[in-house]
Specification:
Elements (H helix, E strand, L loop, with lengths): L9 E6 L2 E7 L5 H8 L18 E4 L2 E4 L12 E3 L12 H8 L9 H14 L5 H7 L10 H13 L5
Parallel strand pairs: 1-5
Antiparallel strand pairs: 1-2, 3-4, 3-5
Helix pairs in contact: 2-5
Length: 163
């Protein structure tokens, strides 16, 4: 049986608190729509398989790997990218903590790490070091800044980095 009906195109997304008009095939990845259609390039293409988490964004407040998420499943959901984390130019507590702890080197993984950390602190505002390590499992940093990332997240938690 052949279906000639086209799947409904996605025409709007709620990104960073704004309704954004798009015209996208529902099977495209959220990452490709964010980067190519909306010019939000903070989420990075790393592995394309959900293994490195460089593409992490928040969907309804939870960390999501945007390289795996189909844009068709995002209709009506609140999406926050790294660009939307600092409204009015004031850095989020997690962003400040990453800078203070020097928890970045090349910076490629940093947006995904920060979004993952924000999600972690929403679920657990005062995580132990072991809970941070477990919560950030899957975020790959080729530069090896892991100990500084843990320091940054602990610092953000201590400053009320939950948002």
């Amino acid at each position: 049986m052949i279906h000639n009906e086209a799947m409904a195109r996605i025409t709007e997304l709620n990104v960073n608190g704004r309704r954004r008009r798009i015209d996208a095939d529902p099977d495209r990845t959220l990452l490709s729509v964010l980067r190519d259609d909306l010019d939000l390039t903070g989420a990075k293409y790393g592995c394309g398989e959900g293994q490195c988490a460089a593409c992490t964004v928040l969907v309804e407040g939870q960390a999501a790997k945007s390289c795996l998420a189909k844009v068709g499943a995002m209709a009506g959901k609140r999406i926050v990218t790294i660009e939307g984390l600092a409204p009015e130019g004031k850095l989020h507590a997690v962003q400040e903590a990453f800078l203070e702890a020097d928890a970045l080197q090349c910076g490629y993984c940093t947006p995904g790490m920060i979004m993952g950390a924000v999600s972690l602190l929403r679920r657990n505002p005062h995580p132990s070091e072991a809970e941070i390590v477990t919560g950030m499992n899957g975020h790959i940093c080729r530069c090896g800044t892991y100990s500084r990332v843990v320091t940054a997240i602990r610092s953000a938690a201590g400053k009320g980095g939950r948002a």
